[in-house]
From TrEMBL:
Name the record gives this protein: 60s ribosomal l37
Classification via Pfam families: Ribosomal_L37e
Family: Belongs to the eukaryotic ribosomal protein eL37 family.
An example Gene Ontology CC term for this record: cytosolic large ribosomal subunit
SUPFAM superfamilies per UniProt: Zn-binding ribosomal proteins
GO annotation, biological process: translation
InterPro entries associated with the record: Ribosomal_eL37 (IPR001569), Ribosomal_eL37/eL43 (IPR011331), Ribosomal_zn-bd (IPR011332)
Keyword Membrane recorded: no
Gene3D superfamilies: 2.20.25.30
Region feature (Disordered): 60-79
Organism lineage string: Eukaryota, Fungi, Dikarya, Ascomycota, Pezizomycotina
Keywords (A to Z) from UniProt: Metal-binding, Ribonucleoprotein, Ribosomal protein, RNA-binding, rRNA-binding, Zinc, Zinc-finger
Length: 79
């Protein structure tokens, strides 16, 4: 029994060496317009979205980088 390394399901074809669910090892995720339900199940926001949860807050603040003004110290603000 072979497991797909990306999804952890038994959908990796032994002879083709290709996942029938996600298309691994292809560079892009396998998706077709004739399967709207499957696209809905796999789309962004159906998992943990550990990166995307952070983006809306950063967008609101204009994608600021570096340390906050107060954390730099008193001398850094005067200079």
């Amino acid at each position: 029994m072979l497991m797909g390394s990306q999804i952890g399901r038994r959908s990796l074809h032994v002879q083709k060496h290709e996942c029938s669910s996600c298309g691994y090892p292809a560079a892009k995720i396998r998706k077709y317009n004739w399967s709207e339900k499957a696209k809905r199940r796999k789309t962004v926001g159906t998992g943990r979205t550990r990166y995307l949860k952070d983006v809306s807050r950063r967008f609101k603040n204009g994608f600021q980088t570096g340390t906050p003004k107060g954390a730099r110290g008193v001398n850094a603000e005067k200079a």
